[in-house]
Design goal:
mainly beta; Jelly Rolls; about 45% strand
């Protein structure tokens, strides 16, 4: 009886050793779209984007910003009630806007960043308003002398 136990223990030890030696590959699930400041993009928010948990969807854009940058982020859509967020690398919200100053369902936010680094501009639909076509514009504002 004892040789079977030793054989079984050796077999599982060998399986464990092989398992530990296999290469581990990480699967990339979240990858925000690189976006250049002082540019504009026309895109579409769909049900293939990030679910918000409120019935809508979101799409993230990665922007590189410098300490002291002042931004205007403009999101325009005729298809959904737009919300725009500026997020720090740790996921904290720097600024957020739902409806623009013109009373429309477009979004416009102004923000100043205090640290150099990567930031996320998140385009999302309010509640269950779904998705559709939109235009996103991120502009670095210049201070007046």
């Amino acid at each position: 009886m004892q040789p079977v136990f030793v054989l079984s223990r050796s077999f599982w030890g060998l399986v464990w050793l092989i398992f530990l030696s296999l290469p581990v590959t990480a699967q990339t699930i979240y990858k925000p779209i690189p976006f250049t400041v002082n540019s504009e993009i026309n895109d579409t928010l769909t049900d293939k984007d990030i679910p918000t948990g409120e019935g809508g969807f979101a799409r993230d854009y990665l922007v590189k910003l410098q300490a002291g940058d002042q931004l205007a982020v403009d999101l325009v859509s005729d298809d959904f009630d737009a919300i725009i967020l500026l997020l720090a690398a740790d996921g904290s919200t720097i600024a957020e806007n739902d409806d623009g100053p013109d009373g429309s369902t477009n979004a416009l936010l102004f923000a100043r960043v205090t640290e150099t680094g990567d930031y996320i501009v998140r385009v999302r639909a309010f509640g269950e308003t779904g998705g559709g076509k939109y235009s996103l514009k991120v502009t670095r504002l210049r201070p007046t002398p």
